[in-house]
Amino acid sequence: SQQGEEDPQALSIQEGENATMNCSYKTSINNLQWYRQNSGRGLVHLILIRSNEREKHSGRLRVTLDTSKKSSSLLITASRAADTASYFCATGGMEYGNKLVFGAGTILRVKS
Amino acid sequence: KAGVTQTPRYLIKTRGQQVTLSCSPISGHRSVSWYQQTPGQGLQFLFEYFSETQRNKGNFPGRFSGRQFSNSRSEMNVSTLELGDSALYLCASSLEGAGEKLFFGSGTQLSVL
Predict the structure, then answer these.
(1) DSSP letters along chain A, please?
(2) By the CB < 8 Å criterion, does B101 face chain A?
(3) DSSP strand pairing (A10-14 vs A106-111)
(4) pLDDT digits over A40-95, tens only?
(5) How many CB atoms lie within 10 A of CB A98?
(6) Residue B22 above 90 pLDDT?
(7) What is the distance in angstroms between the Cα of A90 and the nearest Cα belonging to chain B?
């Protein structure tokens, strides 16, 4: 079962623009994470935000978490062609046991 | 530190056969999780092993099994392969546990003909 649902399913932008992806989830969480996957390869961890945090930054990435709305957003600023990938949110929480539950992902294409 | 290593990278099998996939986690990581990724179902959790014990299992039939060795290396086995088992199988290791930051291998692409 998928806990998180990403929005939009696909996003196409020009290099230099910002990209925003959203994730909604259903149950309470301990943490929410974002991962990137280049075509047919393994996932790479981007950022983890805990349920008691509201915002986190890492380089050109900014993640926000709103537990009252059960939603998170990932902002990539000044995008580059190399950012072209699929982005997944994943939730970790006691209700799902000791595992991460991944959303369906957002496909981001950055055109140069 | 070496990353998570999965072998083989590609595998082609026929229906009814069985397959074993291998995963070597990052040194010091005792938690190993397995995921199945398909275009239709996305990433689905298979199971997690920690110190040779299965701690959590996803909703997959008994044809899917796994184990972990004392050196934390893990294997997963799929018996009586079906066409629907064609997928990218991803292994991930973690220092803190399967609900925390995961380090993924490149995956094994399994095709069942």
Answers:
(1) ----EEE-SEEEEETTS-EEEEEE-SS--SEEEEEEE-TTS-EEEEEEEETT--EEEETTEEEEEETTTTEEEEEE-S--GGG-EEEEEEEE-GGG-SSEEE---EEEEEE-
(2) yes
(3) parallel
(4) 789 999 999 999 999 999 999 999 999 999 999 999 999 999 999 999 999 987 66
(5) 18
(6) yes
(7) 9
CB contact under 8 A, A30 and B109: no
User: Average model confidence (pLDDT) for chain A?
Assistant: 93
Are the Cβ atoms of B90 and A104 closer than 8 angstroms? no
Considering CB atoms only, which of B56, B107, B109 is closest to A97?
B56
- Residue A93 with chain B: CB contacts under 8 Å: 99
Q: Which two tokens stand for residue B4?
A: 């998570």
